[in-house]
Amino acid sequence: MLSLVQFETNPRLQQALSGLELAPVSPDSNLQNRRLLFAVAVDEAGPGAAFYAFLRRLRRERDALAGSVACLVVDGDTELYTKAAARELVLAANRAGCLLPGRPLVEATGSLYNQHIQARNLGLSWEETYFLRVRELAWRLERFQPPRFRRPRVLMLHASDQKRSNTLALGRAVCAQLEDCCDIRELQLLNGTVYDCRGCGYHACLHFAQNNTCFYGGVVAQEVLPAVREADLLLFLCPNYNDALSANLMALINRMTSLVVQQELRDTYLAAVVVSGYSGGDIVAQQLLGAMSLNRGCILPPDFCLLQTAHDPGDAMKATGAAAETENFARRLREALLP
Ligand SMILES: Cc1cc2nc3c(=O)[nH]c(=O)nc-3n(C[C@H](O)[C@H](O)[C@H](O)COP(=O)(O)O)c2cc1C
């Protein structure tokens, strides 16, 4: 049975959860080795104090959710703060050892307008669609089996300078630890070769995708997206650029629309190396997991992201503990991927 960890409530969230077989548990209890459904009510000022107290617990206790698998429902009174709350909770839970299946979030904004496309496709009201998606989420969480691979195919994606980049040096050190058990491919997204998504309508996007291309075609459609489709683990190398993913990586993620209209990435794991010159790695990690897991559907293995601070070329590998952190990160990936 699923364990329900709830932060605040409202009548609509209660109705969404009613009828599900859930065992309520306290956020302060032992939450290891469980199937957890987090339910968060967010009002016009954001999540309540208990939510932040829980984040603080997860950030301190790095094994608080070891062996657990989680999904979440976030229900807001207004149009704001639901996604931000989800990203924060997912990062904290994941760093506390929790695995999250792809698309682990059902989000209800105040108006429920965010349900309108699915509602139209299903022929249901916005509220009925929300309730149905919560039931479907609970169903998926209960049955989810993390995929395992005899020889995982790892695709390392980056847009970094070959000689100077700290992020690339760390990424290659991680791959060196995985070489004996994985097939590893490295793809560099060269500046100027990745056009951002044009935002074609759904049917035009699907039409291009069915012909294995996209409006812009080029190296992304011909080489990068087929490699993404084949990979079991996507390893994103993310230097912090103005507290965000770099434009090349973001453009690639946007262009993946043409891939996911055809095929979900539900058996593909996501991992990342994030390097900041000064600060803000958590913001970049949240942006990546938001795009690639909450939106695109990749699985987050426990502690999916290696976070480092380094600025001058070579600093990342020289930092105290870098070798051990790289080794531990590679070990966690092995444990997640191999039978
Ligand atoms: C355009 C640009 C913007 C950057 N913005 C930030 C930033 O907002 N915060 C930060 O901590 N580091 C920032 N940095 C520094 C990089 O994150 C840092 O150099 C780090 O080592 C990763 O880059 P690398 O893999 O190329 O070495 C920025 C670097 C560049 C080139």
Helix/strand layout:
Blueprint: E1 2-7, H1 11-17, E2 22-24, E3 35-42, H2 49-60, E4 69-76, H3 82-95, E5 105-108, H4 116-122, H5 126-143, E6 153-158, H6 166-178, E7 183-188, H7 202-210, H8 218-230, E8 233-239, H9 247-255, H10 257-260, E9 269-276, H11 281-295, E10 305-309, H12 315-318, H13 322-337
Parallel strand pairs: 1-2, 1-3, 3-4, 4-5, 6-7, 6-8, 8-9, 9-10
Residues 160, 165-167, 239-243, 275-280, 310-311 line the site of flavin mononucleotide (FMN).
Mean pLDDT: 95
Q: Calculate the terminal CA-CA distance, rounded to whole Å.
A: 25 Å
Q: Radius of gyration, Cα only, in angstroms?
A: 20 Å
Q: Identify every distinct bound molecule in the structure, by name, code or SMILES.
A: flavin mononucleotide
Write a brief caption for the model.
This protein is an alpha/beta fold. Helix content is 42%, strand content 18%. It is built from 13 helices and ten strands.
Describe the protein in words.
- The chain is an alpha/beta fold and about 350 residues long.
- It folds into 2 domains: about 140 residues, Flavodoxin domain (Rossmann fold, 3-Layer(aba) Sandwich); about 180 residues, Rossmann fold, CATH 3.40.50.
- About 40% of the residues lie in helices and about 20% in strands.
- It is built from 13 helices and 10 strands.
- The strands form 2 sheets. Strands 2-1-3-4-5 form a 5-stranded parallel sheet, sandwiched between helices. Strands 7-6-8-9-10 form a 5-stranded parallel sheet, sandwiched between helices.
- The model has no long low-confidence stretch (mean pLDDT about 95).
- Flavin mononucleotide (FMN) binds next to helix 6 and strand 9.
